[in-house]
Known about the structure:
- The model has no long low-confidence stretch (mean pLDDT 80).
- A three-stranded antiparallel β-sheet has the order 1-3-2.
- The two termini are 23 Å apart.
- Strand 2 (59-64) and strand 3 form a beta hairpin.
- It is mainly alpha-helical.
- It has helices spanning 11-22, 28-39, 43-56, 76-91, 111-126; strands at 26-27, 59-64, 67-72.
- It has two domains: 11-72, Arc Repressor Mutant, subunit A, CATH 1.10.10.10; 76-126, no CATH class.
- It is built from five helices and three strands.
Amino acid sequence: MSGKSFDNPTKPELAILKLLWRDDDLSARAIHNAIADDFGWSYSTVRTVLERMSEKGLISKRATQGVNYYTAEVTKVSVLGRMIADFSSRVLELDTAPAAAFFSDSKLLSEDELDELEAMLRKAEDR
């Protein structure tokens, strides 16, 4: 997955990324079915958001037998690390990001991902 620079994802983009982190390689229809109720979106709106996410480099798209499948191109840790550092600095006005141990009860992160997040937050703090 890419180490490209990207803006923090919007709430809907993050919801889509979470789906793709859990079940890589999903069709637009599967993504729509999973998030339509949360956002009240039509299928065409989901497709538009997926195209924009692809243009931003957040996801990639491949066509198989006329069906588009999407894969996350950014890792959980890279996205969450940036969001945590941004929130800590911009909103809380902290000079340092919180320790990754703060997120140890997260259902989204594995132990290895927590370790990776801790290293990323410390590295960002050292800059």
